[in-house]
Amino acid sequence: MFPNRLGLPDLNDEGIDYYVGHTLEDLLRKLYKQISRELHFISGHQGFDEADHQQAISIARQFAAQLPTVRKLLDSDIQAAFEGDPAARSPDEVLVCYPGITAIIHHRLAHILYQLGAPLVARMISEMLTLLPELTFIPGAQIGESFLSTTAPVWSSAKLQ
Length: 161
What we know:
Elements: H1 3-6, H2 16-43, H3 50-84, H4 91-97, H5 99-116, H6 119-127
Helix pairs in contact: 2-3, 3-4, 3-5, 5-6
C-alpha cells in the first residue's frame, strides 16, 4: 500500500510501477488461493468446484479494484493521526511507528473481504492483530474516514459507524 515508504530501500521512480505490479499480482494470487480454500471449505464439496473458483476470482478482483479507495482512506487516517499528535514529526513516522495505523490498515482490508463474501479470510486478517491485544476490530465494523482524528493517539476510542 505504501511502496515509497515501506518498499525496497533502493526503490526509485523508474522501478516503482514494476515493483507495485509484481507485488500486487503475487499477493492477489495468494489471496485468491485463500479465498478459494474458504469457499471450498464452506461449500463442503469433495473435489474442485468451478463455481467456487469463479467466485474466488471475482472476490479477489473486486478487492483489488477497491485498493485505490482504501489507500486514500489510509492516507486520511495517517494524516489525522499526525495532525492529532503534537509529538509526531511526520506522517511517515506515524505510518511505521503507530500500532493504531497497523490496526486500521488490517481492518480496512479485512472489512472489504468481509463485505465481498470472504468472512473467514477477513477474520484471519483481523486475528493477526492479536499481537496488539488492545487493538481489536470486528471485520464487519464499518469505520469512516480520518479514523484517528483525535487530539492524541487514543487507539481504544474507536469511532464506529
